[in-house]
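Retro notes, item 3 of 5
We never archived the inputs for the magnesium ion complex last cycle. Fixing that now. Sequence and ligand:
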Amino acid sequence: MSLIKTVAQQARRTNVVASKASSSSAHPLGGYNENKAQLRRETTAQYYRDHDIHNAAKKDSVRLKAAALLFTGRIPSDIDLIRSAQYLQSELPVRLAHRIKGFRSLPFIVVTNPHILKVMEQYIRSFKVISSFNDGRMVKKQDQVEDFTHLLEILLDDHGSVIDDLTQGFSSCHDHVLDIFDGDEGKAHELVQSFLDKTLTSRLGIRLLAQHHLLLKDQIGKNSRYFIPRHDRIGIVESRWKPAKDIEAIARKIRESWMFHCDNPPRVKLNGHTEAEFPYIPIGVDYILQEVFKNAFRAVIEAHSNSARQMPPIDVTIAVNREDFTIRIADRGKGMKSDVINKIWRYHFTTARGRSNYGGVGDLLSMANSNEKELAGYGIGLPISKAYAEYLGGNLEIKSMSGIGTDVYLTLKHIDPHKGHSFRI
Ligand code: ADP
Ligand code: MG
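Structure as it came back at the time:
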């Protein structure tokens, strides 16, 4: 969980950097915040005649092998930081342009929804700011890298509410999407699913790469030529990640949140390979675990709220193999009926709608944020988790026994498998 703390610190520092950037017009990024309002006005109009975006969208994205982030045992240096900045400088505009194209292919009635339009404009602004950084020339010197890194921090912060905005946007134009397909729920769902899966996993990838750069920068040290040795972490990669430790910490946090709604929420019991450690990027998996635990606690609490007996525990089993690892979260929350199970992977499907009292999770995982403040009710926990799991070269499966309980299986590839292919970011 140490990485989560760092991410939170990062977010705090981002505010400092953002205010620094806006208060000092002499600062190379000063203009960014000052021009934001103007850019906002210009972007929508420019969007339709912007050749830069059009050309960048024609290029292929260069996805990095996860193992490449490990530096294969080598200690990263200033040169690596410059390379990392250069990679992001050329790669991020391509990824953003692809996504802008995705927005462009949405039906007009959807893209003009204020929440969705806001996100599209954010993407266009970010595209412009990154591609025009240093007048479009690759960064070469330390101070340029420093400025570019500050810019990344501001942009990460800027995009913090994208999931909330898209969720609100798509949920408020659900009826319009249905109209487009003459009331065909399946087709409407397909459109939303393919757009959100792509946009949210691309966002995860961009944020992982940007965070990696920021953490590398922290680790290498500001004006230092020397790497501050952190044997347990290189950028976003924890070199000795212990799943049991994250599972316990996340379960504890979610259990505490449920204590606002229930005196004695179920316990979480771990078994299997609880001592296993290996190199991994915890950010995505932590997000998924958080969502799965929220659901498991809710199911057990709702199913047993009228019983005086202690609630049945949530059992978590860890199995680590050479190619991948699986985490199974098994609850006795009475499972789901088939009409529910058929819809759980759909964005916005929930059986908790209107239960706005399910609020309460604090600042856990602000980086990958979604409905982090709420314990249930948006219906996006499972579909986003599945999309993330698949992006990370794995899968998320659910087996439910109606009347008994639910087993969730999260399987993910190692970043450095003994044989076979890892995933790319
Ligand atoms: P939300 O939690 O906001 O409802 P999710 O996407 O996380 O959205 O879950 C969708 C629905 O799937 C839930 O509303 C619930 O009906 C069902 N569900 C998910 N996990 C479980 C579980 N462990 N036991 C019973 N039902 C579940
Ligand atoms: Mg949920």
